[in-house]
């Protein structure tokens, strides 16, 4: 983590409040024991004003500290909840694109499960520590009452802790395995949501994913959690039996054998019952702390997974490429990991390309030829195996990749339509101009930098996505099969009117397209074939769409 998730000062403050609250509780018990002793020794309890005043002050202080303690704990947990969410989203936003695609289910599982567990753990940790402190204070008080009873109690506690320790690793193993099943569930849920259309077409898929796999995950998760929490419950039961045995032993055996005063025995039992409550609270919180430890390791693992050298790190060189004249791609290669690509070792390259500012480039090629992969490489979303990219004479690398990416605006084939423009200086007149050009002015509204839409078709949504990109004023616009969802009328308008207009405005356009009848509206045409980028001219006999 970049910064501490929880402020140590705030945590210590809340812990101290819990400590004061526990100390006041013990003070109340001490007062009760004092009154019991007076009752036993004097045979009658005489009303004394000082005890009443002390009791009133004690209860008042306890109420105030407890209220403030509860408020501070809630405040701390809520701050932690959102800090963790922000941290996980930061990890995601800084991630390498390729890693993100492979591990997106881990992010979802982390946001759904781990963040909530860690938030609860902050509260649990405070209560755990205050209960632990209460135990220490009680043991100190027992030692004050009787060293013998203190030693007996200590033996029982150590025995219970030893028994608990024996099953600790086993229970933790089951909890960790159950957390893995949670990750499997999130992955399945992602398939059910994103593959809903395909699943709706095939009852067999629906049965396998929606019933068989789901039931298998549920059965495994239930079994693992039952084993873990049953083991924890048995440990708690063992502790209770040991304490009840200790109380009965003192009252029935040690009291007479060692000649303990009746008042001491009564005080001992009273303190022991209070101590038992603190121990049970501690034991009850341990499973949550185990789960929190697993969740924390998951968050750390998530951070480490996405900490690749090609991520967007703080910029150390201040190059500004707004006035660039050309981009040069040299000997660029990329090979898919064998676990990702269906064809082992498939890749693209070497690719050499020079992109001049203000030009229009069309790229076409067959399915699987590498067009989209090249586009992702050019955008800096994939890390090339070899090769260099230059902006004018500046080599793009670790310290300026973030600036380089800011040159591009893209509408992918699987684009996401944002409802706002991420340009604080956007001109409302320009917004209306683009909405009119793309024939969306009667369907799309604009207010406070946010678009409002009603009843847009797939093609209209894609037009609005391009409008958003243009309003960001990025010098290079990259389009992946943008016109495929447009009707014949608007497709013709896009190539014959809009692309020339954008070129006049100074945009550089790189488009993957198979609309060969409009290839005459581009400056350069390239064909992607078996991972190689081949320059094609209008006069070249290979000038055909695949």
TrEMBL record:
Residues 327-546 form the ABC transporter domain. Keywords: ATP-binding, Membrane, Nucleotide-binding, Transmembrane, Transmembrane helix, Transport. The chain crosses the membrane at residues 12-36, 48-69, 148-166, 237-254, 260-279. The keyword Repeat does not apply. It is found in: Cell membrane. It comes from the Bacteria. Its main location: membrane. InterPro entries: AAA+_ATPase, ABC1_TM_dom, ABC1_TM_sf, ABC_transporter-like_ATP-bd, Cyc_pep_transpt_SyrD/YojI, ECF_ABC_transporter_ATP-bd, P-loop_NTPase. GO terms for biological process: peptide transport. Pfam families: ABC_tran (PF00005). Residues 14-291 form the ABC transmembrane type-1 domain. It is a multi-pass membrane protein. GO terms for molecular function: ABC-type transporter activity; ATP binding; ATP hydrolysis activity; peptide transmembrane transporter activity. GO terms for cellular component: ATP-binding cassette (ABC) transporter complex. SUPFAM superfamilies: ABC transporter transmembrane region, P-loop containing nucleoside triphosphate hydrolases. This is Cyclic peptide export ABC transporter.
């Amino acid at each position: 983590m970049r910064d501490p998730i929880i402020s140590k000062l705030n945590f210590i403050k809340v812990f101290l409040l819990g400590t004061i609250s526990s100390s006041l509780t013990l003070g109340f018990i001490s007062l009760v024991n004092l009154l019991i002793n007076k009752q036993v020794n004097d045979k009658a309890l005489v009303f004394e004003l000082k005890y009443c005043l002390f009791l009133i002050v004690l209860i008042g202080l306890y109420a105030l500290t407890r209220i403030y303690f509860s408020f501070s704990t809630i405040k701390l947990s809520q701050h932690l909840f959102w800090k963790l969410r922000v941290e996980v989203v930061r990890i995601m936003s800084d991630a390498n694109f390729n890693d993100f695609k492979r591990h997106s289910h881990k992010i979802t599982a982390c946001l759904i499960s781990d963040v909530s567990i860690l938030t609860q753990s902050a509260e649990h940790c405070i209560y755990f520590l205050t209960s632990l402190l209460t135990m220490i204070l009680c043991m100190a008080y027992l030692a004050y009452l009787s060293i013998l009873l203190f030693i007996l109690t200590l033996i029982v506690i150590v025995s219970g802790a030893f028994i608990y320790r024996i099953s600790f690793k086993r229970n933790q193993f089951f909890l960790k395995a159950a957390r893995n099943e949670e990750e499997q569930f999130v992955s399945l849920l992602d398939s059910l949501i994103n593959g809903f259309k395909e699943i709706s077409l095939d009852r067999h898929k629906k049965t396998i994913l929606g019933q068989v796999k789901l039931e298998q995950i549920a059965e495994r998760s239930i079994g693992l959690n039952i084993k873990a929490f049953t083991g924890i419950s048995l440990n708690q039961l063992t502790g209770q039996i040991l304490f009840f045995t200790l109380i009965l032993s003192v009252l029935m055996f040690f009291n007479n054998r060692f000649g303990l005063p009746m008042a001491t025995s009564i005080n001992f039992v009273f303190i022991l019952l209070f101590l038992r409550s603190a121990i049970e609270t501690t034991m009850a919180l341990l499973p949550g702390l185990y789960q929190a430890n697993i969740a924390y390791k998951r968050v750390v693992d998530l951070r480490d997974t996405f900490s690749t050298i090609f991520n967007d790190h703080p910029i150390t060189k201040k190059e500004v490429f707004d006035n660039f004249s050309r981009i040069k791609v040299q000997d660029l290669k990329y090979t898919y990991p064998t676990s990702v690509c269906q064809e082992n070792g498939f890749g693209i390259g070497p690719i050499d390309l020079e992109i001049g500012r203000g030009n229009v480039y069309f790229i076409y090629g067959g399915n699987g030829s590498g067009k989209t992969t090249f586009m992702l490489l050019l955008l800096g979303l994939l890390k090339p195996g070899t090769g260099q990219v230059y902006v004018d004479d500046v080599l793009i690398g670790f310290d300026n990749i973030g600036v380089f990416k800011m040159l591009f605006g893209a509408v992918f084939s699987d684009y996401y339509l944002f409802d706002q423009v991420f340009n604080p200086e956007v001109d409302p007149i320009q917004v209306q101009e683009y909405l009119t050009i793309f024939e969306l002015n009667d369907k799309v509204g604009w207010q406070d930098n946010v678009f409002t839409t009603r009843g847009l078709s797939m093609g209209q949504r894609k037009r609005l996505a391009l409008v958003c990109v243009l309003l960001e004023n990025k010098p290079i616009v990259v389009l992946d099969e943008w016109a495929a969802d447009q009707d014949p009328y608007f497709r013709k308008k896009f190539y014959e009117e809009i692309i020339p207009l954008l070129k006049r405005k100074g945009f550089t356009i790189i488009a993957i397209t198979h609309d060969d009848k409009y290839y005459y509206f581009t400056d350069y045409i390239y064909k992607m074939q078996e991972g190689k980028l081949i320059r094609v001219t209008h006069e070249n006999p290979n000038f055909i769409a695949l």
